[in-house]
Amino acid sequence: xxxxxxxxxxxxxxxxxxxxxxxxxxxxxxxxxxxxxxxxxxxxxxxxxxxxxxxxxxxxxxxxxxxxxxxxxxxxxxxxxxxxxxxxxxxxxxxxxxxxxxxxxxxxxxxxxxxxxxxxxxxxxxxxxxxxxxxxxxxxxxxxxxxxxxxxxxxxxxxxxxxxxxxxxxxxxxxxxxxxxxxxxxxxxxxxxxxxxxxxxxxxxxxxxxxxxxxxxxxxxxxxxxxxxxxxxxxxxxxxxxxxxxxxxxxxxxxxxxxxxxxxxxxxxxxxxxxxxxxxxxxxxxxxxxxxxxxxxxxx
Amino acid sequence: xxxxxxxxxxxxxxxxxxxxxxxxxxxxxxxxxxxxxxxxxxxxxxxxxxxxxxxxxxxxxxxxxxxxxxxxxxxxxxxxxxxxxxxxxxxxxxxxxxxxxxxxxxxxxxxxxxxxxxxxxxxxxxxxxxxxxxxxxxxxxxxxxxxxxxxxxxxxxxxxxxxxxxxxxxxxxxxxxxxxxxxxxxxxxxxxxxxxxxxxxxxxxxxxxxxxxxxxxxxxxxxxxxxxxxxxxxxxxxxxxxxxxxxxxxxxxxxxxxxxxxxxxxxxxxxxxxxxxxxxxxxxxxxxxxxxxxxxxxxxxxxxxxxxxxxxxxxxxxxxxxxxxxxxxxxxxxxxxxxxxxxxxxxxxxxxxxxxxxxxxxxxxxxxxxxxxxxxxxxxxxxxxxxxxxxx
Lengths: 300, 392
What we know:
The complex is a heterodimer of chains A (about 300) and B (about 400). Chain A is mainly α. Chain A has a single domain, classed as ABC transporter involved in vitamin B12 uptake, BtuC (Orthogonal Bundle), CATH 1.10.3470. Chain A has eleven helices and two strands. In chain A, helix 1 (about 5-35) runs parallel beside helix 5 and helix 1 (about 5-35) packs across helix 9 (about 230-245). Chain A is globular. Chain A starts with a helix and ends in a 12-residue tail after the last helix. Chain B has a domain at about 150-285 and about 365-380: Response regulator (Rossmann fold), CATH 3.40.50.2300. By secondary structure, chain B is an alpha/beta fold. Chain B is built from twelve helices and 15 strands. In chain B, about 50% of the residues are buried. The chains are: A mainly alpha (about 300), B alpha/beta (about 400). At the A-B interface, helix 1, helix 5, helix 9, helix 10 and helix 11 of A face helix 2, strand 7, helix 7, helix 8 and helix 9 of B.
């Protein structure tokens, strides 16, 4: 292995890390607060991807001169739409199922099937092609043999920004304070005058919005089709469970560990083997630490 | 009590009357229609590829009906959804054969779904037309294969690549039966022709992370990359290749599972200049194909494109019609007997059913993908005799 390849491999590991963090962030927050396992998380990502697609079509048709900007707007649109959808979902659907974790599992899984079919009806069964904007195409040539893809650099940057924003929101804002209070002790927070129902709705919507952003940025890496969400779901769950389901820091570390391990193993073995070995390692570690890497102390 | 009983009887009578209704309609209809089955995934992962194959089959049926049907009968297609699930395929195939008594069935797409329905068709003495290019190594009395088998696609492609593009090959594919078998054949053929395999990689179906594979390709510096990646993974693979600075200007790549249909999903800009090998491309210039493409676009919309399995499925319906007319009956054994050595002017040019193995004599064509998402043909073989069990 030459030095160039080594650098590119480490970079790939960071890239996969950022992708995994984007996927898992929304799910961690929702699960941590409400104990809701959202099986439709993948479809919410797909919704974000489709919103980006719609934005690109609108730009192509009405503002072809500003095509270079569509992607930034697309991310925004994806966030707003999935946030709103998540809010409605919580109010009309999820909130009737609190304290019934198995039922939510089934209900959100059903929802994911409904959404898949909806995408199929609206956008057709085939994948849609979402164009990558000009300034994110190609690679940054550091030296002759060392090339770093621009879209991956962008995703790493985006992840850092989003993670920073989520951190500030949770730990430096009044909303964040309420969310943390409800997470730690729902009854006590309610008694102290926090409207826990509203906190639930906003948090769930935020989780969905983050899924939307993830889906939107993945249009540069992967396909956008009715079942695209399924591609992400398993990886997302592994990261969240391995990290400890209530811990943001755990999610970060687990994404980092899984990302680097998988990328290195892919290089040394084949893609399928790498996935199998990574899963095996995760299972063994969970055997010794059933609550994941970081188990937050939470009163239920 | 008395009242309830009377109501029960009334309901029973009503139900009985209703159940008679469709039967009488059917028996009336039976006189001038013939049922055929269409079995593809309309939901689930494979819907992406299979839904448009159904469109092509329906188009052929509509065309035949408009021009008078088969033996004076209108074709009535019964469409079943295999739902990307192999046991469902088998179940629906049984339904088509045992309940609907279809004269022939067009369908199955993945090798897994074909393997699932094969015993059902053999047991019920049914007839299936299978439209996809596949790995070969199969021969069934109940199936007529209208797609290419390995010697007409993979082996033809490898031979051409060895002669024209270089000797070292990197194999990369999705992890299931078709890519693994195809690569086994490709490896044998490459080594026999003095080439070498410098890498072989498989990724799970639906995989979206290709950066390590791409780095491995960069490190191995092969003359040729041979890709058997399928489905949504293709989009990820080509987008990430391009982002990593690999394109047709610095790497020869041949895709064995990318038709014009996939190109629209991947985005032609990510594929321009790469090679593909199929029997059929939309851009082929011949009157049958021009008529087919025009009819397809008129029926389903200007933006739609046509790929190899769709053309093979369209051909299958006409092939069945011709065999039925030659046999003078819809009887399955008679139709199969009449199919032997049958020729047809198909969109891909003249094809002929092989006398023994139920595959077609086909041409292999190699082309480069252009910026419009169409394929410019650069090589065309003579018709190749199908040989599903090639000796290597």
